[in-house]
Amino acid sequence: MKPNFSTALIWIVAALIAIGAWIAFTSETAAAIAIATVLCAAIQQARIAVDVARLNASLEKSSQNDGASAFPIFRRSLLTQLSRQCASMTEQHARTRNEIQSEHLQRQLFEQSMRDGLVVLDAHQRVLSANAAAARLLGFDSTAARGRLFQELSRIPEVNAMLDASYKDGQRRHGLLEPPTSPGSIVDAAIETLRDESKQPIGALLLIADVTSEQRLERMRSDFVANVSHELRTPITNIKGYIETIQQIGLGDQGQVNRFLEIVERNASRLGALVEDLLSISFLESSNSKERVTMGPTPVHSLIDWVDAELGPAAEARGVQLKRDIERDLHLHANALLVEQAIGNLVSNAIRYAPRGSAIEISARASHMPVQGLGKNASNSIDHSHTRMALITVSDQGPGIPEKHLPRLFERFYRVDSARSRDEGGTGLGLAIVKHIAMVHGGTVTVESSIGIGSRFCLVIPLANI
């Protein structure tokens, strides 16, 4: 506004000087006309300066308020048209700016909500944007990454090498690798370069996914299939081999035939036990196993009676004594068949490894001890915050288990002594089934063992509220 008024004042002063000089050489009438003309021109110029100042003020106010200000209407059509054009332009500018801000916000929300890491690079491998997941997986600060070379941020040589190769030949790169910032984790890195019409790189997209759990599950699946195949193949091969032998030698030597048939029967029983255990572990690991298991008050004495009746002859045949120490009137909130199976598996293992003349003790006590992680695996029908637990222990006087094996003892098909376990008829799934039965009931199973002294397995199951 000030520059326009200054211009008008300069016009007026200059006009007055010119008029004063001219008056000295002309008549009074002509001088009066000249003065009036110059004054009118100066006033007109001042009004125009004021209108332009108003228009300029509206433009400044509009830029500060994102185009929300109204523009003045002038008497002069030219200024009115200019004012309307300014209003239209600022409104369009505001709409464009809002659209850009909205798109930027949406892109930020999309990138930050992605579970996978995303890095956008320019033609020179400088970071245009990187979301929080990428920064976490690659180990850099996403807020300070923009504008920096990717190689300055990444500490994974394999990713840098894939990026350079993709920029050179335009081919998509993909690979599994372990980031040094997160040992034990596995990420899947995929790089796609973008090129212009002349095949020159103009940027790249780097997508990084944490596939640690997927790889672990895949490895477990592969191990499970391999173990099942091996466990099934062995008895099937034995059965087939001895049947072929019987067919070749005929039935003349009845004693030898009977011995071969006993071997066939033993392998068939092993095969049947393996199939039953596979069905059990499949059921217990299913997502709805807890809903499909019926639970109710179950007396512990009846469970131990069943175990004694089923496994007592096997223990007696091996010269092992079964002892019991059960608290009176102890009732579990459990599925009787499953808990019988769990206790039976523990006792069967103890009989298999207990030395002749030793004893296996089965005890059960009520406990007020908190069970770590109980709420995570708890059945929905029980309020575990106020539930007492039963500690059912099976203790033997066997050779004991080396400490290095204890963390993996409840894994499927894990054996401390593979040869002896197979000779004894074990399937390698017994303890894994015990673990899952405990989990279905909202409990746990633990083991303590000392070399040369024996082992103690503790099964924790909720007590019934009766």
Structure notes:
By secondary structure, the protein is of the alpha+beta class. α1 (2-23) packs antiparallel against α2 and α8 (254-285) packs parallel to α13. It folds into 4 domains: 2-106, no CATH class; 114-210, 2-Layer Sandwich (Beta-Lactamase); 222-285, Helix Hairpins; 290-462, Histidine kinase-like ATPase, C-terminal domain (Heat Shock Protein 90, 2-Layer Sandwich). The radius of gyration is 44 Å and the shape is elongated. The strands form 3 sheets. It has a 5-stranded antiparallel beta sheet with strand order 2-1-5-4-3. The chain contains 13 helices and 12 strands. The termini are far apart.
Largest sheet: 5 strands, antiparallel
CATH topology of the largest domain: Heat Shock Protein 90
How many DSSP-defined strands? 12
Multimerization status: single chain
- Roughly what fraction of the amino acids lie in strands? 15-25%
Task: Using the alpha-carbon principal axes, give the shape.
Answer: elongated
Q: Please identify, by name, the CATH architecture of the largest domain.
A: 2-Layer Sandwich
**Residue runs with pLDDT of under 50 for 5 or more positions:** 370-386
